C-alpha cells in the first residue's frame, strides 16, 4: 500500500469510520515502517522546536505517553527539564498535566494510561497533541473522548497563551475533517513529511 491509497476513506464517512480507518492503518504499519516514520517526524519536530524555542522562552512542554502505535516524540524533549504528561481524571473533565522525569513513579489514569504519581499539576506552554487524523487547517481526530478539545477550550477561556502542536503520520492527512463547533485547531502540525502547518508566528505566544 502506498501513501496515496492510505488516505482513501469511504465516501461520506463519519468520524467514527475515519477514526477506525486510520487507527487500523497505523496498527498495520510494520515495525520498520513505524520506526522510519517516527524518526522522520521526530527530526522535523526537533528542528521546529529548536527554531521556535530560540525566539521564545517556553517552559512546560505537555507530552503524552504513547499507545496504540502513536508517534513517540518523547526523545525530542529528552534533555528538556520541564516535561509534563496528561492524566484523564474523569470522562468529561479537561486533562490535567503532571511534571514528569524519566524513571518517575507512574500510576494508571482512568483509561489505564501511565501518568506520573504526583499531586502537582502544571499548565504547559507548549502542548504536544497526538493526531489520529488531521486536515489542512489543523483540525484533528483523536480517540473520540474530546479531551484535548475540552482542555484547550478551558485553558483558552482562562487566557492561556500557549501553543498546540499536533503530531501525526502523513498518511492520516485529509483535506477537510468538517470540524464541529467544539473542535479546536492545532497551531502547528508536524508529520513525518515535515512541518505541514505553522501558525505559531501569528499567535502571540
Ligand atoms: N497517549 C495518549 N494519552 C492520552 C490521550 C491520547 O490521545 N493519547 N488522550 C487524549 O484524549 C487522553 C486519554 N484519552 C483517551 C480517550 C479514549 C480512549 C479509549 O481507549 N477509547 C476507547 C473507545 C471509547 C469509545 O468508543 O467510547 C478505545 O479506543 O477503545 C483512551 C484514551 C489522555 N492521555
Ligand atoms: N469543549 C467541549 N465541551 C463539551 N463537549 C465537548 C467539548 N469538546 C469535545 N466535546 C465532546 O467530546 C466528544 C468527542 O469529541 P471528538 O470526536 O472531537 O474527540 P477527539 O478530538 O477525537 O478526542 P480526544 O481530544 O480525546 O483525542 C464529542 O461528542 C463532543 O461533543
Automatic annotation (TrEMBL):
<feature type="binding site">
    <location>
        <begin position="140"/>
        <end position="148"/>
    </location>
    <ligand>
        <name>ATP</name>
    </ligand>
</feature>
<dbReference type="GO" id="GO:0009396">
    <property type="term" value="P:folic acid-containing compound biosynthetic process"/>
</dbReference>
<keyword id="KW-0436">Ligase</keyword>
<dbReference type="GO" id="GO:0035999">
    <property type="term" value="P:tetrahydrofolate interconversion"/>
</dbReference>
<dbReference type="Pfam" id="PF01812">
    <property type="entry name" value="5-FTHF_cyc-lig"/>
</dbReference>
<dbReference type="InterPro" id="IPR037171">
    <property type="entry name" value="NagB/RpiA_transferase-like"/>
</dbReference>
<dbReference type="InterPro" id="IPR002698">
    <property type="entry name" value="FTHF_cligase"/>
</dbReference>
<feature type="binding site">
    <location>
        <position position="70"/>
    </location>
    <ligand>
        <name>substrate</name>
    </ligand>
</feature>
<keyword id="KW-0479">Metal-binding</keyword>
<feature type="binding site">
    <location>
        <begin position="15"/>
        <end position="19"/>
    </location>
    <ligand>
        <name>ATP</name>
    </ligand>
</feature>
<dbReference type="InterPro" id="IPR024185">
    <property type="entry name" value="FTHF_cligase-like_sf"/>
</dbReference>
<comment type="similarity">
    <text>Belongs to the 5-formyltetrahydrofolate cyclo-ligase family.</text>
</comment>
<keyword id="KW-0067">ATP-binding</keyword>
<keyword id="KW-0547">Nucleotide-binding</keyword>
<dbReference type="GO" id="GO:0005524">
    <property type="term" value="F:ATP binding"/>
</dbReference>
<dbReference type="GO" id="GO:0046872">
    <property type="term" value="F:metal ion binding"/>
</dbReference>
<keyword id="KW-0460">Magnesium</keyword>
<dbReference type="GO" id="GO:0030272">
    <property type="term" value="F:5-formyltetrahydrofolate cyclo-ligase activity"/>
</dbReference>
<protein>
    <recommendedName>
        <fullName>5-formyltetrahydrofolate cyclo-ligase</fullName>
        <ecNumber>6.3.3.2</ecNumber>
    </recommendedName>
</protein>
Amino acid at each position: 500500500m502506498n501513501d496515496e491509497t492510505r488516505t482513501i476513506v469511504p465516501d461520506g464517512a463519519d468520524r467514527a469510520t475515519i477514526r477506525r480507518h486510520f487507527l487500523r492503518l497505523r496498527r498495520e504499519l510494520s515495525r520498520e515502517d513505524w520506526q522510519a516514520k517516527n524518526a522522520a517526524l521526530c527530526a522535523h519536530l526537533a528542528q521546529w522546536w529548536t527554531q521556535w524555542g530560540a525566539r521564545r522562552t517556553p517552559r512546560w512542554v505537555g507530552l503524552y505517553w504513547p499507545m496504540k502505535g502513536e508517534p513517540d516524540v518523547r526523545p525530542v524533549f529528552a534533555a528538556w527539564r520541564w516535561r509534563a504528561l496528561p492524566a484523564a481524571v474523569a470522562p468529561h473533565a479537561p486533562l490535567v498535566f503532571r511534571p514528569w522525569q524519566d524513571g518517575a513513579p507512574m500510576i494508571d489514569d482512568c483509561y489505564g494510561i501511565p501518568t506520573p504519581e504526583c499531586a502537582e499539576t502544571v499548565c504547559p506552554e507548549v502542548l504536544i497533541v497526538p493526531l489520529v487524523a488531521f486536515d489542512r487547517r489543523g483540525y484533528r481526530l483523536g480517540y473520540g473522548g474530546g479531551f484535548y478539545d475540552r482542555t484547550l477550550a478551558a485553558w483558552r477561556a482562562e487566557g492561556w497563551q500557549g501553543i498546540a502542536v499536533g503530531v501525526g503520520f502523513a498518511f492520516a492527512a485529509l483535506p477537510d475533517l468538517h470540524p464541529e463547533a467544539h473542535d479546536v485547531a492545532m497551531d502547528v502540525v508536524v508529520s513525518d513529511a515535515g512541518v505541514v502547518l505553522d501558525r505559531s508566528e501569528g499567535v502571540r505566544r
